[in-house]
Amino acid sequence: MSGISSGVDIHPAWLPSEAFGVLGSKRTLVVGSGVLVETVRDEVRGASSSYGGRLLDGDDDGSGHDGDHGADVVLGTGAAFGDDARAAAGPEAKAALDEAMAVAGSAGDREPLGREGFVVARRAGVTVVVGGDGPGLLYGMFHLLRFPELLTGPGRPAERHEPAHDLRMLDHWDNVAVHPVMGQVERGYAGGSIFYDDGEVRADLSRGEQYARLLAATGINRVAINNVNVHAREARLLTEDLGEVARIAEVFRPWSIRVHLSVNFASPIVLGGLETSDPLDEKVQAWWADAAARVYRAVPDFGGFVVKADSEGQPGPFAYGRDHADGANLLARALAPHGGVVHWRAFVYNHRQDWRDRSTDRARAAYDHFAPLDGRFEDNVIVQVKHGPMDFQVREPVSPVLAAMPRTRLAVELQVTQEYTGQQKHVCYLGPYWSEILRFRPWGAGALGSAGIAVSDLARGGLAAVSNVGDDRFWTGHPLAQANLYAFGRLAWEPELDPSAVLDEWIGLTFPGADDAVRASVHEVMDGSWRTYENYTAPMGVGFMVRPGHHYGPDVDGYEYTAWGTYHFADRDGVGVDRTRATGTGFTGQYPAPWRDIYESLAQCPDELLLFFHHVPYGHVLHSGTTVIQHIYDTHFAGFEEVERMAERWETLKGRIPDDVFARVAERLDEQLGSAREWRDRLCTYFYRKSGVPDACGRTIY
Ligand code: GCV
Questions:
Q1: Is there a contact between 542 and 549 (Cβ–Cβ < 8 Å)?
Q2: Ligand 1 centroid to 392 CA: how many Å?
Q3: Span from the CA of 2 to the centroid of ligand 1 (angstroms)
Q4: Does 171 reside within a domain?
Q5: Which residues are catalytic?
Q6: Which among 307, 303, 316, 298 has a CA at the least distance from the CA of 239?
Q7: Under the phi-then-psi rule, with left for phi > 0, alpha for psi from -120 to 50, and beta for the rest, what region is 595?
Q8: pLDDT tens digits for 124-182?
Q9: Is the CB of 228 under 6 A from ligand 1?
Q10: Which CATH number belongs to the domain containing residue 288 in this structure?
């Protein structure tokens, strides 16, 4: 068993006891000191007591040696491997240790291993993990669970692992007080909050502790603990509830995770009794400096603030005629003496748009507001940009802001919670989507470097994502949605990972002991599920078409005549949004070449984004050779059939995986099937009635 006893009823997600089986059967020496090394020791101790191994840690005669049998596994921070530790590791460990230390060191252009990095080497039957420091050791230990083959079998050359991004963050949209419309967790589909219950921080934070451990095992190192919409109750986390924030931070600290707070830009008024929150006002500046100092007295390793300003009704600098750089820098200067950062969100647009006004394009908004500010932000400001220009739709182009701010630290924001992708009632494994986004080359492949600069390279402020976790016993409502949380952590650590292989890692950990056929079936159900979801919902990047408010299920015109800027413009002749420079909103011009021209051109625009960029007749012929209207019919029928196949495949797993997981997923697949049918029939019927063009295959359309 692990260091934390898991609640009887809580699903262990990707850390079931059996995941520790191989490590727990070994004789393991842990060297080094500090909170995180103690965490590793606790984990090894727990695993050893369950699986017959031993923690060699000053027991026996103080060394790893026990007669002529030394340690099988040696885990330590680089600095801890002095003579005593080497002696304790024993002569058999020397080859692996020497190799690991060499690979951890500098050579040529290579820097020494950073704090979060680790090296694994296996020689002469001994596996050694050297961590750059405590965090690296922790990540290295979890790596051994993912790849237990590193603990057995023949020698393997040393592998060096370091995160691509320093900041790998989850944002919780958890409210402290239950919001009358949004509930305890805004866009939460997995029950209540693991941190708050009806107005207070939970007295029992043991779920938070288990969560921290799961996150550490997938490489997350930051968590923002409250909703970016900061209402009156939540605002007080910054002041009178700091003791409670400190309690939450204590839970995360042993797992190398720093806590951040979402703050309300009007806090000087709301909490401080000032008459203004003008960023250029000295009293306001002093208020924030004091507030930051108080936070750091309570939580010395506090991460920083997250801010949604001048967005969907949240207050911001516009009220004082200031811009987003003025606003962000105000908070950045307050945090800088303590080493904190501000995540300032670029999700700013006019949510009170007149639908009659064709000149305003929501997709343009983030770029129009932020690109001109490049170079004006303090070093500890991170501008957090949603991956697409709209709002986490199942298909969007990459946000042009990411290529437009070379002098600003940018973070890419993803949405793990499935607001627009099935709300954790539908299977929708998002790893492949995120992978496409992170690998996208805004200047094209081959430009500006042999492979071209990828979105992931531009995210110098790391990755952030909206969490999908709640107090549900499976953590994520839909048990298979756990894979999205796991994959986010893994891709934030290493964006080049193959999402399909990451899925297999998750399956291997979550279903220990499952045979190959079972693993293959789970893989089959999940791997293509994002494209399946896309097939039966909004076509070719047009987006939305969901029921207003809660955003679940089809309603083609639900947002068509609203103030939110989310239109598809379907009429009897065609559908899609003209965002070209030639005849439309000019949004294509926000991209650098080659994409500004590819998206502009009807002939070159990729099919899957056609309706995002162009308004086209129903008879327009796609690259695939079919017409737009026939594509809509075909993909919707195909998407529904894919869900039928998923459900049939899942049925074959009955009795071969834990009953509770089987039953919950089966129940959700029923819902998914019904919902996919509704999407198919409404979309096909809507477009048939608009266009009058029958389905070439003669299927039933109502
Ligand atoms: C937290 C979308 C969601 C909102 C969310 C907002 C945001 O509009 O529907 O619930 O608010 O994004 O990202 O700030």
A1: no
A2: 9
A3: 36
A4: yes
A5: 312, 391, 419
A6: 298
A7: alpha
A8: 999 999 999 999 999 999 999 999 999 998 999 999 999 999 999 999 999 999 999 99
A9: yes
A10: 3.20.20.80
